[in-house]
Amino acid sequence: MNSRQQIILQMVIDQGRVSVVDLAKATGVSEVTIRQDLNVLEKQSYLRRAHGYAVPLDSEDVETRMMNNFALKRELAEFAASLVSNGETVFIENGSSNALLARTLAEQKEVTIVTVSSYIAHLLKETRCEVILLGGIYQKKSESMVGPLTRQYVQQVHFSKAFIGIDGWQPETGFTGRDMMRSDVVNAVLEKGCETIVLTDSSKFGAVHPYTLGPLARFSRVITDDRLKEEHRARLQRDGLQVDIVASPH
């Protein structure tokens, strides 16, 4: 590792996420050279690249997924935020789209956010937003709280809306998740009977994973993008869900 690469790595560790443009300015070399350096550092497992940015390894899961389709997820978050009024208490589950929603709400409105995501809680530490982080077993990879303690905490707090992420949906299965423990937390939220909103890009529709989220009747609406297949949209509506389509940015 040369001296410039050491500077790059230290900036990424200190700042958490640094753009190629900022790295080029800080080191006085071209963006092409920076990208070559990042390729070397990524191959050596010092950091990861994410769509024009470098991120440290320990932020790869949520942060990197947030940067994938960032413009689209930001549009989804803006629409979801418009459904929340000042003074509301809302539950926001784990995931990249939900993290953007939490940040958008914290910037725009006076709300209380209940979450099981330590990443979301950390993301809001400099905002005026009230944050309630529910306890439980810390699932390191997802930066989320899970387990029977988390389920108990969910039962003890109250919120008017819940924004949920999913991993898959098919007509035959309904909504599904890939992680048993996180799926159990979602199902605890669904048992509360509040307005539950699925916030996801359309790539999850058509996929299936092992753990059921549901029953379907406990979901209120879906917010997704205009790449959702028309037959999937029709089936969701036939099953009683309101489907809000957000135009993909071009």
General description of the model:
By secondary structure, the protein is an alpha/beta fold. Helix content is about 40%, strand content about 20%. It contains ten helices and 15 strands. It has helices at about 5-15, 20-25, 30-45, 60-65, 70-80, 95-110, 120-125, 150-155, 180-190, 230-240, and strands spanning about 20, 45-50, 55, 90, 110-115, 130-135, 135-140, 145, 160-165, 170, 175, 195-200, 210-215, 220-225, 240-245. The strands form four sheets. It has a seven-stranded parallel sheet with strand order 6-5-4-9-12-14-15, sandwiched between helices. The chain has a three-stranded antiparallel sheet with strand order 1-3-2. A three-stranded antiparallel sheet has the order 10-11-13, covered by helices on one side. Helix 2 packs across helix 3 (about 30-45) and helix 4 packs across helix 6. The longest helix has 13 residues, at about 5-15. It is globular. It starts with a helix and ends with a strand. About 40% of the residues are buried. The model has no long low-confidence stretch (mean pLDDT about 90).
